[in-house]
Amino acid sequence: MSSLTLTAASSAQAIRRSRTWGRRLLIAGAWLVFALFLLLPLLVVLAEALKQGFGTFFSALLEPDALAALKLTLIAVGISVPLNMLFGVAAAWCVSKYEFRGKSLLVTLIDLPFSVSPVIAGLIYVLMFGAQGWFGPWLREHDIQIVFAVPGIVLATLFVTVPFVARELIPLMQEQGTQEEEAARLLGANGWQMFWHVTLPNIRWGLIYGVVLCTARAMGEFGAVSVVSGHIRGVTNTLPLHVEILYNEYNHVAAFSVASLLLLLALFILLLKQWSERHVNANRGE
Amino acid sequence: MSRRISPVIPGFGLTLGYTLVYLSLLVLIPLGALFLKTTQLSWEQFIAVIGAPRVLAALRLSFGTALLAAVLNGVIGTLLAWVLVRYRFPGRKLIEAMIDLPFALPTAVAGIALAALYAPAGPVGRIATELGFKIAYTPLGITLALTFVTLPFVVRTLQPVLADIPREVEEAASCLGAKPWQVFRHVLLPALLPAWLTGFALAFARGVGEYGSVIFIAGNMPMKTEILPLLIMVKLDQYDYAGATAIGVLMLVVSFLLLLLINLLQRRISTP
């Protein structure tokens, strides 16, 4: 009897021991993947950028073309993020507060830009507004340039970032339901008061989270912008396109210097994301 | 069209109207223009464009590498999601936060970083050269770039599902004598599979269309390492708008069919 208990105990111990080993192996695997796939590329960018010291690093960033590219990137982000934020709130509002036919189709359409290649996103605006496009002749008559100019870059950025805010808000607002808004209405609030004082505080962190993701993509979009940009230095180059031009000219140190600026922005965005995500989860837990 | 559940809450007409107008102007009409443009080609011309050997090679490469990257992510992503949800260990928070780096990092930056890393003279590329194979400028390099940019998809779709599976179920299975492998196969896998397929499909769709991170590491040799999105760019540079459009339509249709297939598979799995 006692020997039987002993064997059972020792086999349980053996199982536990193999568990800890399996566990250690899996954790080591995760660390390895992290180091090889995520950390190494990051370090390479910084190492290449600082290869010739801080002097060359900063001069690459302060060069007029780089500053013009930074300005254009800020313009594209500054226009596309607020517009898509407004759209996201409106779309999430009608999807989450009402029932209507075709709703799931609408949700699919909102997500559509995610499954379209960025290059195709650029292509469709060339087909619409390019010299040979549908509106090409009309635009030329009125001396308006969209493709190979700033408006095209903004349009392409808008297209690829359409779903971000709506996607974050829809599940959040569906979870929250309509009771609080209904209470506000019954207590005499008008539509705007209800939105400002009840809905907005409830969705605040989800909104910030969506805006952060939207900003990251708007800042870094490459394919779509590349098609409509025309690559005119200092005029229609965004920061990512500027990185490409420098890299293709074998000016690697400058390319990686500008890239490391974008990398630092990306790390900052990750921090903001963590911060807003924690608040979203805390609010959900309440 | 409208059947409101909550007549007290205002703004239905306004928000739905705004949503529809915005989506139509920005997404639907331009995408419609793409399909309309292809009708300018006759059926024979369309077939001639998409049947060209260079296009077919790019099609195989794009879908093949995207598929391979999605599978690779299926494995790596499952490992990461499992470890992050189930274990507490030093550095967990750092890894958890950094998983989203590929989404936050501009693809061009990822592209040049990976090219520098895997080029024959780069830190990893040199090791590969010594071992007798090349990573950059081969389909392997493209696959690795796609694996990087789509890394978060599987992890992020699996994490919430894994967190919701009660541990007692696994413990019960192993108490009843199931080996770890059997617990995985019969308890975890069925619960994870729908979410896994979602992550897989997202990674695959993104991989097929990805441009920025790939072109630097691909080498872009026609017939060998030229991806479909790049071929669209090449056609555009040659002012061959009809050709570019035809390839664009081909890409959209094939991706749509594959996603539909994955969707059907998922539905079959989740309703046994």
From TrEMBL, chain A:
Protein name: Sulfate transport system permease protein CysW
InterPro entries per the UniProt record, alphabetical: CysW_permease, MetI-like, MetI-like_sf, Sulph_transpt2
All residue ranges annotated as the ABC transmembrane type-1 domain in the record: 70-271
Native source organism of the sequence: Pseudomonas indica
Pfam families (UniProt xref): BPD_transp_1
Membrane topology: Multi-pass membrane protein
Record GO terms (molecular function): ABC-type sulfate transporter activity
Keyword flag Kinase: no
TrEMBL record, chain B:
Tagged with keyword Transmembrane helix: yes
Pfam families attached to this UniProt entry: BPD_transp_1
Domain ABC transmembrane type-1: start-end pairs: 59-262
Compartments where found: Cell membrane
Origin: domain of life: Bacteria
Keyword Transmembrane carried by entry: yes
Subunit relationships: The complex is composed of two ATP-binding proteins (CysA), two transmembrane proteins (CysT and CysW) and a solute-binding protein (CysP).
Family note: Belongs to the binding-protein-dependent transport system permease family. CysTW subfamily.
PANTHER family listed in its UniProt record: SULFATE TRANSPORT SYSTEM PERMEASE PROTEIN, SULFATE TRANSPORT SYSTEM PERMEASE PROTEIN CYST
Protein name: Sulfate transport system permease protein CysT
Organism this protein belongs to: Pseudomonas indica
Lineage of source species: Bacteria, Pseudomonadati, Pseudomonadota, Gammaproteobacteria, Pseudomonadales
